[in-house]
Amino acid sequence: MQQPEISVVIPFLNEEENLPELAAALESYAQILSVPIEVIFVDDGSTDGSVAWLRAAHFSHFTAKIVKLSKNFGSHPAVRAGFLYASAPNCVWLGADLQEPLEIIGSGYAKLQEGYDLVSIQKNQVKVAKSEELFSRFYSSLIRRYAVPGYPPKGVNTIFFNQKVKDELNRNIELNSSVVLQVLNQGFRQAIINVDYAERKHGKSKWSLTKKVKLLIDSFVAFSFFPIRLVSTIGILFALIGCLSALYLVIIKVFNIREVTLGWPTLISVLMMGFGITNISLGMIAEYLWRTLDAARGRPAFIIDSVENIS
C-alpha cells in the first residue's frame, strides 16, 4: 500500500461489541477517500476479547496496527501513545463507539489543505444524557474563561492536526493533562467544524463521572492559575470580613451601643466555615504539589507493551 496521508488513532477499552461495526465502517469509508489512511488501535488495558478480535481481523483498504499499553492509563495517555506511533503527517483520533461520524476524516483533512494547522471538531448535536450535556457546557464555559480562550464554546472531543502540531505534541508528552487543551494552547492556526454526534449503539461508555472530574481538575491545574488565585482571593475576602466584624464588635462594646451576645451555634458555624474554606484551599494547593512531584519523578505517561501490524 501507499504511504498513509492520515493516521486515525482509535483508543479503546473493552469495545469488543463495537469493533466489528467500526471496522466495517472504516473499510467502507476508506474506499471513498482520495488519500490512503492508517488506523492505529490503542488498547488501553482491555480485559475482554477486543485485542484477539483485532488480531484475527483483515483490512483491505487501509493499513492498521495495535499499540497495546501495559495497563489502563486513561484515554488521553492512550491517544498520545497512538500519535507517537503515527506514521502519517496528519492525525486525528476517534472513539471506538462510532459516536463521531467518519466524515470527520475527510472534512478535517480538507481544512488542513486550506492552510490550517489544527481543526477542532465541535459538537453541534449529540444524543447523550442531560447530565452529560450539562457537564460539557459547564466544562467548556470554565475552560474558555479561565484557561484557553480559543476553546470551542460547545465543547470538543477530538482534533485533527498536521505534522507541525504532531511533532510539538510528541516532544512534550505531559502527565495529568488534556491533549486537546495542550494543542489549543500552542497557538497554531485553527479551524472549527460543527459535527452532529450519534448515540452510542453497544455497551456502556467508559467516560465515568470520576474520569470527568479528573479531566476538569487536570485542565485547570495544567493550564490555569485560577484555582491558586481563587484561594488567595477567598483568603483576602474572609480576612477582610473578619477584621470588619471584629471592628464592629469593638465599637459596640466600647460605646455600649447594645449588649453583645455570641452563642455557641454562631461560633461553631463560623469555625466550620473557616475550617472548610481552609481545607478546600489546602486541597487545591495539594493538587499542584502532587502534579509537580509527578512531573519531577519523570515517570512515563504510558508504557507500551507491544506494537503489532495487523494488516
CATH structural architecture of the largest domain:
Alpha-Beta Complex
CATH superfamily of the largest domain: Spore Coat Polysaccharide Biosynthesis Protein SpsA, Chain A
Label the structural class.
alpha/beta
Q: Indicate the radius of gyration in whole angstroms.
A: 25 Å
What is the strand and helix layout of this fold?
Elements: E1 6-12, H1 19-32, E2 37-43, H2 50-56, E3 63-69, H3 75-84, E4 90-93, H4 103-113, E5 118-125, H5 130-146, E6 156-161, H6 163-171, H7 179-184, E7 190-196, H8 209-223, H9 226-254, H10 264-297, E8 304-309
Parallel strand pairs: 1-2, 1-4, 2-3, 5-7
Antiparallel strand pairs: 3-8, 4-6, 5-6
Helix pairs in contact: 5-8, 9-10
Quick structural summary:
The chain has 311 residues and is α/β, with parallel strands linked by helices.
List keywords for this structure.
elongated; Spore Coat Polysaccharide Biosynthesis Protein SpsA, Chain A; 311 residues; 8-stranded mixed beta sheet; 2 domains; 10 helices; alpha/beta; 49% helix
Describe what this molecule looks like in 3D:
Helix content is 49%, strand content 17%. It is of the alpha/beta class and 311 residues long. It has two domains: 6-205 and 301-309, Spore Coat Polysaccharide Biosynthesis Protein SpsA, Chain A; 226-297. 30% of the residues are buried. The model has no long low-confidence stretch (mean pLDDT 82).
